[in-house]
Amino acid sequence: MWSLTSSRPRHCLKIGAQALAWGEAIRTWRGRYRYRCTLSPTPTGAIKLSPMDLNVTDLPAVENRLRSLAGPRRDIRFAGHAWLSDFPRPIVLLLPDLSVRATVLQLEQLPPQMEEQEALIRWRLGQDHLLPLSGAKIAWQGFPLHEAGGERPQVVLVVTIQEAILRQYESLCESVGLLPQEVGVTSFRLFNLWLKAAGGWKRLGRDLLWVSVSDGGLTAFVLQEGRLVFVRTKLLSAEGLQAEEVPDGELVDNIVEECAVSLRACREHHPGLNVTEIVLAGDSPFPMLEQALNRELGLSVERLDWGAVERVGWRHNGGSTSWATLPVVAGVM
């Protein structure tokens, strides 16, 4: 959600408590895009997700796994000669949802300059006591919407991350020759991928629950008539949750319950909310989840899957097609 330069890296790294995902964007001579992904389990106990405390508890173990996943440093070559050796590769770095905090702001207007936007957003966050700002870096994404007869207020999704946590992730990447040129959050990149594949903002004409399940946590967006009104991230179970270690029925029940809690919390402030459909993204297929959401909450289910990548014109070029690698493709789009 924030970037150091305007150029786009061709590689993306997603760091999670359960898995590390690496993705590469390849552009053919015809201008078409292809992707290649690899996946590696995170060393057990090496990353403990938190929005307040340092996440990486075993730096050497994660460094070794990243070095194997991303491969060696590369030289920059021109006319058959190496001009720069061991040059760090620029990447998009995706952080887990459980490492950040997010909220929704409604502003009458958003200034044109980035510095003015940040000042206004920080002021509002402080006034409303929504997120802790001490030692935190903020990022935001606007949701400008218009209606007949006038302009709606600007809706802004705001994310904060403690600078110490961000520095640890950045230092980890730099130690293996990777330069985080752009930093994002997993669910927010997946939402943008889904929106692009689904036809853009015109897809958001009805009330909608959008849910991402990854790294043992759940993030829910609630949209009312196309306007983002609610965001919530929740740990689904104890730290170190591994989907294969939890009975399918229990995990499905947890997800359904947290979806219900998110809708109830949103309706407290938006009593006219009428959600009948859910878009579901996740790092595994979660068998039986669609039936449970339909049975318990009366929601029709749409999944964000690899078909979304094909609909925006990208093609597979080898490597893993695990659900857990979908974020890194979203990261380089």
Characterise the protein shown here.
- There is one protein chain.
- This protein is 29% helix and 36% strand.
- The protein has 8 helices and 19 strands.
- The longest helix has 22 residues, at 248-269.
- The model is unreliable at 146-150 (pLDDT under 50).
Structural topology:
Blueprint: E1 2-3, E2 11-15, E3 19-27, E4 33-41, H1 59-70, E5 74-78, E6 81-87, E7 89-95, E8 101-107, H2 114-128, E9 136-143, E10 146-147, E11 150-151, E12 154-162, H3 163-175, E13 178-185, H4 186-197, E14 208-214, E15 217-224, E16 227-235, H5 248-269, E17 277-282, H6 289-297, E18 300-303, H7 306-311, E19 314-319, H8 326-332
Parallel strand pairs: 2-7, 4-19, 7-13, 14-17, 17-18
Antiparallel strand pairs: 1-13, 2-3, 3-4, 5-6, 8-12, 9-12, 10-11, 14-15, 15-16
Helix pairs in contact: 4-8, 5-6
Coarse morphology: globular
So how many helices? Answer: 8
- Mean pLDDT over the residues: 86
Oligomer: single chain
Strand content: 35-45%
Strands, total number? 19
- The N- and C-terminal alpha carbons lie at a distance of 13 Å
| Main pleated sheet | 7 strands, mixed
Residue share in helix: 25-40%
**What gyration radius follows from the Cα positions, in whole Å?**
20 Å
The helix/strand series, from N terminus to C terminus, equals EEEEHEEEEHEEEEHEHEEEHEHEHEH
Please supply descriptive tags for the structure shown above.
single chain; 333 residues; alpha/beta; seven-stranded mixed beta sheet; five-stranded mixed beta sheet; 8 helices; 19 strands; 29% helix; globular
